[in-house]
Amino acid sequence: xxxxxxxxxxxxxxxxxxxxxxxxxxxxxxxxxxxxxxxxxxxxxxxxxxxxxxxxxxxxxxxxxxxxxxxxxxxxxxxxxxxxxx
Length: 86
What we know:
Layout lengths: L3 E6 L4 H17 L3 E5 L5 H6 L6 E6 L2 E7 L4 H8 L4
Parallel strand pairs: 1-2
Antiparallel strand pairs: 1-3, 3-4
């Protein structure tokens, strides 16, 4: 998959804790890597990507944001979104 998938989270975020196992499930099913970045430790990404909520999943193609999914994203929706990018 030529795109980069990043999930931004923060410690203690209930939605983030719910999203993480969903990400692992999708990684296994679709053979994709979903990077998880802690925005507390990496605050530069908040401004860089205009993050307003966590979790936020960003799909980048050649460093250009193609998709932004905010809040908890169920596996089916994440898979459908990723299938747009062969």
